Amino acid sequence: LVPGEIVVNEVNFVRKCIATDTSKQDLWGKLVCTNFKISFITDDAGPLLKFQYRNRLLGEHDIPLTCIEQVVTVNDAKRKQKVLGSNQKLKFNPTELIIYCKDFRIVCFRFDEAGPEGAKKVCLAIAHYSQPADPQLLFGFEYVGKRYYNPAGDKVNGVDPGGGGGGGGVEGVQTPLFDRSSDWDREIKRTGGSEWRVCSINESYVISLSLPEYFVVPVSLADQDLKQFSVFFTGQRIPLWCWNHPNGSALVRMSSIKDMVQQRKLDQRICNAVTRSHPQRSDVYKSDLDKSLPTVQDVQAAFVRLKHICVIDPFEESDEKWLSSMESTHWLEYVRSFLKHSAELVHVLDGKHVSVILQEEEDRDLNCVISSLVQVMLDPHFRSIAGFQSLVQKEWVMAGYRFLDRCNHLKKSDKVESPLFLLFLDCVWQLLDQYPAAFEFTETYLTVLSDSLWIPVFSTFLFNCPQQRAEQSREFARGKNIHLGDEKVLWFPSVWDWSQQFTAKDQALFNNPLYVGKSATCVQNGAVKTFKRTKKNYSSTLRGMPSLRNGLLNEQEFIPRRNSLVLRLKPEFSLLKEPQESPSDQYIRDWFSKPADLQGLILPQLLSSHIKVWKLCFLRWIPEAQINNGGYITAFHKVSVLADEIEMLQNRLRQYKGTPSTLGGSPETERCKMYFRASNLRGTPPTPEYLTSSFPFSPVGNLCRRSILGTPLSKFLSGARIWISTETLANETL
């Protein structure tokens, strides 16, 4: 149990189903429900489990309550089933419990030998505690109250108020939280936005409840003007600066102007202020994302269909049918739409030297995705681990993305649920897949980050906005007699402090051995030198691209492989089918005709052959999709070993020449970045037997297969969140 965690209910003699075709490999143990998670405690060793990523907060068989999508109870003898909600009654004794998880897992427990009343109580407890009625009932509050504050309500363990100016990170790299003006000042200086300033008119959230207390605005706009303007914007969300291009153009986001009488006047005033912030006084380009992109509801509907295809439908079908079904979800179509629109805005900022204003009705959904993608493409800083974390903090957490509602942590309304943050991570993964050497992090990092949405310990993904966190913190503190003192809010841990979840060894899986940073070290004549990477160092092969003609691949040249999981999008989406090439298409074509500078601008490849299924995230729990000793991880293993061996040899040369270590530590300390290490003996270490295409995850014990104990899973019931149950119970009305 972690601090603040208590056992709510438990039952012995429970069987966890491991395989669908036999019960011989099932595990026997105790099923426990706490106020944080479902835990299955067993002394049996999983015979098929060779490796699993270890999380310090969760055991091997644990599921956080916030990760639970649906709780289904079954009674085989009475041919009954029920989807359990909070505070519901259960009129039959369950023989089976099926847990559907938000991370695409399905876990099944059997109560054949357990006491019927005990089984019923633990099922009801899981349903109740997985659907809290109030934000303060989320486990993070109890965790923080017990771990960081003593019974007298005073802070313990030397916790630094307000996050200590950073959110921790991989190997101690501090991530700015943008909850103070100094973080914004540093970002302005880093990007050269000399005509922009930090504004503090929203301290104590007196102007807008959804904006941060500090944000950046044009120098030419006075605080008094901003206060007057704010009442005309939806949610009082006045325009916010996001980023500055070296050529002077800026990226700005804003909500819509709700007062039609004032709209033209305010638009002109805002555009003039942004224009004056540009050294060339360039025009401003406004992009209305509500008209340009799929709606939040469209994305949610596509995600429900995607989950159906990846989890529910039989995976034994032919590739052609599976790929056709995947295309019908429209998920990849939407991924491509967001990437394409972002690339077009990159053309405006970088090619035309024109500032861009992103407009969305509430400025809290689509703007988060597009502003982040544009910055990832344009600024290599945001392709480093620390930079990417600061980007999420800046454009999502502090900008008021509604994580509480969009993740549906309280299970209140399916209408507001939408996986926009996961869509963003998928878009970033597409870029990572196309430019593997341009990112410091790996797809494991992105997948673990998506999983962290469902661990209700970190403030990062727990609230709709900073103001909600402050308000709920004060209420909780008053109820628990916690003395906040001069602080405004409870101190919550940030997800960016990865040491709370993983050891330093496991965090090494976040580090990309192919990454080309701002500079790289080499040894010439025994001396360590640093050289800048330039365009001449690269060819198109580093982009992961095939041979191109004029920078684009002809559609007829693409022949998909059977198991490639690459989809053809509809013909009208092909760049080559457009009757007349637009300026942005010409810009993209010209860019692809030149070698890529991986420490500069990158643009997505947008043909149907380039937009792929993110297999590690969506298919990792499916045994049929797992490739033993195959997949991307096998290449990752060899490259990691090679990178570690190079570092080891460089350290030996430094020792031989008496050159001080670049990191000031021992040679062994410097070699800790790679998860897979080179052997000190001659020869390449063999590929570990436990490597699969699902690594570092394992599908064992997650029943995303055709049947559970012989019962088809393909019965997808109507409704966005009513997933499935067993066909033997199909006659029973939910």
TrEMBL record:
The taxonomic lineage of its organism, from the top, reads: Eukaryota, Metazoa, Chordata, Craniata, Vertebrata
Which gene holds the coding sequence for this protein?
A: Mtmr10_0
- Describe the family membership recorded for this protein in Swiss-Prot or TrEMBL: Belongs to the protein-tyrosine phosphatase family. Non-receptor class myotubularin subfamily.
* UniProt-listed SUPFAM superfamilies: (Phosphotyrosine protein) phosphatases II, PH domain-like
- Provide the Myotubularin phosphatase domain boundaries: 178-618
What the entry lists under InterPro entries is as follows:
MTMR10_PTP (IPR030573), MTMR12-like_C (IPR022587), Myotubularin (IPR030564), Myotubularin-like_Pase_dom (IPR010569), PH-like_dom_sf (IPR011993), Prot-tyrosine_phosphatase-like (IPR029021)
User: One matching Pfam family, short form?
Assistant: Myotub-related
User: Which Gene3D superfamilies does the record associate with it?
Assistant: Pleckstrin-homology domain (PH domain)/Phosphotyrosine-binding domain (PTB)
Protein name stated in the entry: MTMRA protein
> Which CDD domains does this entry report, sorted A to Z?
PTP-MTMR10
